[in-house]
Amino acid sequence: MRKIFVSLMLSVICFSFLSADEIGLINDGMILLNQKKFLESIQVLEKARDINPSDPYVYYYLGEANYAIGKKKEAIDNYQKAIAIDSNNPDFYYSIAIVYESQGNYQEAINSLNKVIEITYSSSVGKSAQKLKESILAQQESREMLQRWARMTEEEIRRQQEQQRTERTMDSRDAFSSELTGVSRERIDMREKRDAIGQIIRRIQFGTETNRQQSSALLPLYEQAELLTVLGDMIDIASNEKDLQIRKNVILALGRTETSESIITAIKIIQDDKETYDIKNTVLDSIAKNRSEEIKGVLRDALTNLLKGREERKVEARSKISKLNEDINALQTKRTELYREERGEQGYGSRGGAFSAQERERMEAEAQRVEESRRQKTEELMKVNDQLISLQEEKSKYERLLMSKEERERSMGASARQGMPPYAQEQGRPPFAQGQSIPPAAQRPDMQHASSYGMDGMPVGYMSRYEGSNEEKSENTFALKLISTLGSMRDKQSLPLIATAWNEYGVESEKTLYSLTLARLGDFKDIQTLLNRLWQNYQQPVQKEEIELRVGIIEVLGEYLAQKPDPKLQGLLEFMSEEGEFPEIRKAAANALSSFTRTLSR
After folding, report:
1. Domain closes at, from 262, 281, 316
2. Are 592 and 573 in contact (CB under 8 A)?
3. What angle do CA 23, 26, 32 make, to 5 degrees?
4. Cα–Cα distance between 406 and 418 in angstroms, integer?
5. Strand partners, 61
């Protein structure tokens, strides 16, 4: 009988048993990560690595710990080693994508996120990867769109200048035309502009996506009289538009009308519990110059409700964190055990030679059993990962909520000492170390001017300084904008409420704004902080909002001087009125001195 030589890919059961020491060290390292003892965690995990350098999870957790202390290069190196050992683990790719994103290396981030989506599209981490990828792409598109809008605005300015030059050369003919028709030049201009803004509204209502967004960006540039002609259309768009950026632009334009209808629309948005804080922040920008008692009352109520809701969530958080810690630790231990078992059953070898039919049948049956067992453990491992992600996100949310103002400041200070920007952008990433929130990531291009200030004196982009979800950041932004807006409205009735809100939402980076708010309400205890800001050099390029902030400081210095005359402070204002670096500064100082002089003469 002819011998048959068969070469088959068969499963060889080759369990790579991990020592009890290594398992214990990995668990200890994870616990230290949970406790934010990052350096100690690294020391313990390095010992586990020395025992078994082929365990990918050791490198994964080393990557998480290094990222937590700002060592991004070391984090990437460890994540890459984990991937080299296990190229099918989506957590590894997701974590390295976050680091790439924080460095501004968006293409590498997208490549890593694509691997996550390829491996596990329908799981929690897969959905998070898809969401983060869309966010990165949207931000790239937004930056490109802003550049297009800037070019378009410049072209519009040039066109208007050219039109003005043409009109000046045609004055005599226009005068003659007016005499014949009895129509004034002003009415002709008004009619032409009304038609132009009507066209802008039609583009917003019926144009393509890009055309609608570009047109909405132009709308706030129109004069109040022009905007009044399309008031009803703007209210409809502000109330019902689905595109976030279009809606924001229209809300800003609507605020410039300063009509009762626009105020009613703004109040409805602020009082709507289902409305996002992002939109409410835009509404605050749009009504910053309004001083009506009705608006003040609405804003006080909004700040009161924020604090009330936050306290209710704190009560819930305290009762849940302990149980969440127990569940997370149990799942972490289970995941380590499952991974060890799954690795032990994935060894495949190639053996050649002649086998009897009985031997082949027995080996094939064993291979099928091992493969089925491995498949089941892989599925269970993925489920455990999803459960961990969900629990960790919930725990991180509660921990952020319970942090005091001092703890937030210490956290931000520690980040800064490690050379990391003082704010976080988590964008849906599963918490690091399978149990903690992610350390502060690098500054994003869309937040490059976080040191400049917005329409009401609040810094542009400062929501990004706070850890947490986008909605949590927007809540912080909304609270601080409410504080600043009530201050700019000189609502002294809100002073105790503002102090409470600052203790809950305030951070050291916004101290100047808080000091200005207090001074506007008659509390000058932080006057030195305001003086220090005036003595600081202007950052280049100088932002218009920074000038407006200093103008506000000069105004309250004049009020302080009226209460407590001080020759040195008076000399400072006199100097700034003569040699201030900008016309606005010189004018504000002159006005403050004039007000002080009138007070003395009474």
Report:
1. 262
2. yes
3. 140
4. 19
5. none
Write out pLDDT tens, residues 45-100: 998 899 888 889 889 999 999 988 888 999 999 999 999 999 888 889 999 999 99
pLDDT tens figures, 385-413: 777 777 777 777 777 777 766 665 555 44
10 strand-pairing partners:
349
Q: Which residue has the tokens 């399978």?
A: 434
Residue with tokens 């629309």, as numbered in its chain: 265
Q: What is the pLDDT of residues 580-596, one digit of tens each?
A: 889 999 999 999 888 88
**H/E run at residue 351:** strand 348-353
DSSP 70: T
Q: What is the pLDDT of residue 499?
A: 93
The rounded distance, in Å, linking the Cα atoms of 547 and 517 is: 16
Please check whether residue 430 lies inside any domain of the structure: no
Q: How many structural domains comprise the chain? A: 2
Name the burial class of residue 220, with classes exposed (0-12), middle (13-18) and buried (19+) by CB atoms within 10 angstroms of its CB.
Answer: middle
CA distance 34 to 85: 25
Of 262, 291, 323, the residue that ends a domain is: 262
380 backbone dihedrals φ, ψ, rounded to 5°: -65, -40
Rounded to the nearest 5°, which phi and psi values hold at 551?
Answer: -60, -45
Residue 348 lies in a domain: no
pTM beyond cutoff 0.70:
no
Q: 267: Cβ–Cβ under 8 A, 6 or more apart, which residues?
A: 294, 295, 298
pLDDT band at 302 (very low <50, low <70, confident <90, very high): very high
526 falls within a domain: yes
> 350 pairs with which residues across the strands?
9
The kind and range of the H/E element at 10 are strand 6-11
Whole-angstrom distance, CA of residue 429 vs CA of residue 393: 9
**What tens digit of pLDDT does each residue of 315-372 get?**
888 888 888 888 888 887 877 777 776 665 554 444 445 567 777 778 777 777 777 7
* Domain extent at residue 243: 192-262
Let me know if residue 171 belongs to a domain: no
Given CA atoms 400, 402, 408, 412 in this order, what sign does their dihedral have? Answer: negative
